[in-house]
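Page header: ASSEMBLY MODEL / two components / 583 residues total.
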Amino acid sequence: MATRSLDAARIERANLWWRIGSLAPAIIVLAVLSIWPVFNLAYLSLADVKWLSGSAVVEFVGLRNFHELFTGESVYWAGVRNTIVFAVCAVTLQMIFGFTMALAVRRASKIGRSVLTAVFLLPIVIPPVVIGAMWRLLLGRDFGIVNSLLAFFGLPMVDWLGDPRSALMSVIIVDVWHWTPFVFLLTLAGLESLDQEVFEAAKLDVKNSWQELRYVTIPLMMPTILITLAFRMILSFKVFDEIFLLTGGGPGTATEVISFSINRVFFAQDRVGMGSAMSLVTILGVAVLIVLANTVVSRRRKQRVSA
Amino acid sequence: MSAMRSLGGIGGNLIAWGYALIILGPMVWILSNSFKRQIDILMGTTIAPFTLINYQQIINSRQSQFLWNLWNSAVVSVISTLLVLVIATVAAFTVARLQPPRWVTFILLGWALVFHMLPTLTFVGSWYVMFTQAGLHGTYTALILAQVVHGLPMALFLMIGFVMNIPNELVQAARLDGCTYAQVFRHLILPLSLGGMAAAGALAFISAWSDFAIALNLSNKETMTAPVAIATFAQEHQILYGQMAAASMLSMIPALAFIMFGQRFVVRGLLAGAVK
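Prediction written out in full:
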């Protein structure tokens, strides 16, 4: 009896250590490398930093960086605008194309499904830099194959990436090509996991396939659609790699995006203080967006429940 | 009705295979460009003499050490993926099954989610300053640490989902038999979540291998990874299209290997968050 309670006490202690020890690495990594950097940014954003042989010389300048950011740095704000246009347009098109394609394929035979999945996975798993390099070759003005095709059909050539009027659109097209397969795979899996009996039961009530889509399929698919949408929105706000290769933010500020401004100010121009201010404003902005989106979704859910 | 259905089926197939061609077309074109001389690419010659010169030049010429860049990518991605998997799996078991204090879970998962949503570039600058001050700039350590924190949230969420799928009765039964949590983890959770770890690991590896934003600013000439090297081909005075295409092809090899040998793990990882 005594040994048993001794054993129990030993197990209790081991378990306490396990609980602490198993969470500690994750907490330490996130605290040191993601929470501390935010405080570090806040501190640096109030300063002017010069590098002297590998060590930082920090001069405190108060809110000057923020003042400059909100009054002077028009490039950053062009980037904010472009990022929003890019994210909204690209993601909307991807959702429409991907979901429509999933609806079309749902009833198709499953022949060659694994080959199809393999092809659709391809753009998702290869490095985005490669996608950028690839499309830079395809969309080149003088010898890109897209312009060769246009010329073949007797159409005028377009300077896809070099013309300020078409550059952002070209970047959006590339992103749609890149990520539509992702939406397709996710929504197709969602469609195939739906309970077929619901559709059988609804057959009595719906008059045509449009009604079925509107009143049965889309409501049932809402969770999958929302999550796919969230995934895509998050990633398109982070966009950097492809644009770096495709246009480098140019011509002018035509394809400047937020990540680009931060990268340039921080690393090419060595203005650590301003870069930190930009990062901090971006973090706060995205955080506000996340909270807003969360509130809207949870309010809708509550309405759904009470209705 | 069934005739309509099968017609719709054929249409669906046509659309899907049509899109597959739109995906494959550019890839095949780049593949063919990687075997062309620069002059043939610039002239837009479709059928050009076959050459391996691009591959030879990126592998052993004085300006480029692409094999070394691939090696750097491999070191950083493999080590960071292993670390992420270990950290995420042990934490996932505790979060999912051992009821840690609510506020701990809330802050851990809440912050992980927010951090995952923030643009990576907003943190790279801060990491750069921190690592430079610690004398770690340009080292594997810096790249791996940044990759670990970058990949951790996703792996954590995936692993919590997978551990949740293991019936709680099993855990309770093992506890009644006098197992400590550590033993439960080793003999029960670990073997049962190997498939989930493969899925989370596949995604973590792909994301680390593809990373550009972090490596661009935290690596130096010796630790430069493959994506950064590809970008430098585009920044040369004259863009080296053939070499860029060849380097792109080589850096796609791990992705192709995943698709061929681990497709179901990649799919499982991608779908785990979205479809319940």
